[in-house]
Amino acid sequence: MSKEEVWHPDEFLTEFAGEAFDVEQHATKILKQGNMNEEVAKLTSSLQSLDVLIQQHVCSHYTDLLSHAVASSELEQSLAVMATHIQSLQLSTDRVRARVREPFDKIKAGTTSLARLQQTADILRRVIRILQLSKRLASAMGQGETDLAKAASGLAELASLLQEDLTGLEVVEGEARRVRQWRAEVERQGEQLLVRGLATGNQAQLGTGLQVFYNLGTLPGVVENMVEELHTKLKATWVEGLDIKRISDKSQVDGVGRNGKAGPGKAAMPGPGNMAAFRATLWSNIDSLLDSLHSHMVKMFHLQRLLCKKVDPVTHQPYLSTLSTPSLVLHSWSKLTTMVKDSLAAAQAKSNFVRQACEGEYPKMVKLYSELWVKMKYTGAQYSTPTGQMEEFGSV
Q1: pLDDT above 50 for 264
Q2: Which residues lie below 8 Å from residue 239, measured CB to CB, with a gap of 6+?
Q3: Angle at 20 between CA 16 and CA 24, to 5 degrees
Q4: What are phi and psi of 366, to 5 degrees?
Q5: What is the rounded CA–CA span in Å between residue 279 and residue 285?
Q6: How far, in Å, CA of 361 to CA of 363, rounded?
Q7: Is the pLDDT of residue 257 over 50?
Q8: What angle do CA 337, 345, 355 make, to 5 degrees?
């Protein structure tokens, strides 16, 4: 329908086309006016003109309306076919679901059972291995002489097996308590071997002690703690050896031994006539302290050589590679030189007598240091320490 053919209601029908039109109100209005026949005639005429207009529009657009009707019919048929296909697909899906559900449930149940069986088998294998190792260790620990290295290997394996969650297994909990007791005993014996081996220079004892803690997996911590403890003891020895009161007491005792008398109630300070004895005692203590420093470094040389010689049978890496420092000797020498410097500085700060003795007889200090350095070079040569490393010690 063109713009000219668009139907517009006349003035009479405009009221009926409004959105606020109320039938009851309009009928009441007509009854009140008393022109009902006239209104009916107008409505009839308007309806006839609207029917004529609709017929004209249908006649002029017959082809388009027919094609739309045919298209609607075809769409309905297509939708019906699609609905049939959707229903068929739904039925097929239901059948596939019904066929797949049972095998899927069986496979899921079988997979779950297999996983649990594997977990159970793994736990049983570990429990059997724990019992075997525990029995072997019980037999070894019950003998007079225990192979500590093998016992440490077994304890390390037991520790790795017991790391898993095995709570609730009474047999395993009982073995875990025994393992802790055996480990404490092996660590105690291994520590004794390390201490005796370092003190006496026994390579067999020291090597066995190192292997014990390497097999236990605690070698770095044990070596570092042991070296730190030796450093602490040596530092305490230096502080005690340079203590002014101890030096004065010892020089007075030596003076009493020679003169047969002493001044009671006097302060622990060297008198004018006792200065020579005080200085002699001081230099004797320094000489002894430097000897103790050399003995300490001999232990470090010995320990490092064994750490380099002992090799892991699997990785073929030396035990020294597990430590945080590549050179135990250089690390110890650096700490000891700092300790000696601090100890001498503290002793001189506390006593002018010590300062005067060190300054007045400085050549003696140089001589003692030179003798220590000669001993250190000889020790380094004995333990095959490279010359470059010894020069590095000297620079430290």
Answers
A1: no
A2: 343, 346
A3: 70
A4: -65, -40
A5: 10
A6: 6
A7: no
A8: 130
The single residue listed with the structure tokens 């100890």 is 343
Name 318's bridge partners: 311
Identify the CA nearest to 283 among candidates 369, 342, 394, 374: 369
Write the DSSP assignment of 73-122 as a string of letters.
Answer: HHHHHHHHHHHHHHHHHHHHHHHHHHHHHHHHHHHHHHHHHHHHHHHHHH
- Cβ–Cβ < 8 Å for 130, 161: yes
Nearest to 216 by CA among 152, 161, 162: 152
User: Which two structure tokens, joined as six digits, stand for 265?
Assistant: 């109630």
Confidence of residue 228 (pLDDT cuts 50, 70, 90): very high
pTM for this predicted structure:
0.64
Q: What backbone torsions phi and psi does residue 318 show, to the nearest 5 degrees?
A: -65, 155
What does the block give as tokens for 236? 């305490």
Taking residue 301's Cβ as centre, other Cβ atoms within 10 Å add up to 20
Q: How high is the pLDDT of residue 263?
A: 47
Q: Which two tokens stand for residue 388?
A: 């470059």
Four-point Cα dihedral 379, 382, 388, 393, nearest 10: -20
Tell how many helices (H) and how many strands (E) occur in the chain.
Answer: 14, 0
Contact call for residues 297 and 376 (beta carbons, < 8 A): yes
User: Which H or E element spans position 215?
Assistant: helix 203-216
- Which amino acid would we find at residue 13? L
